[in-house]
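_Per-residue structure_
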Amino acid sequence: MVWTLELASYLDDAPWPCNKAELIDYATRTGAPQEVIDNLADLEDTEEPYESIEEIWLDYPTDEDFFYDEEAKDF
């Protein structure tokens, strides 16, 4: 299972929280690439719904990953 920002972006508007089957259905209905559907199919079947993309892609970059130490800048 390989995620990229482009692939993960297809799940931005997913109806979180949702389970694996709901995610696959959503990706199929919205025309996500086959790679997204394949990645979702590789997810573990669990009783608990996934709350966000961060639970699916543990290394999902957050806003903090894109900001450097702004306080260190001299303006």
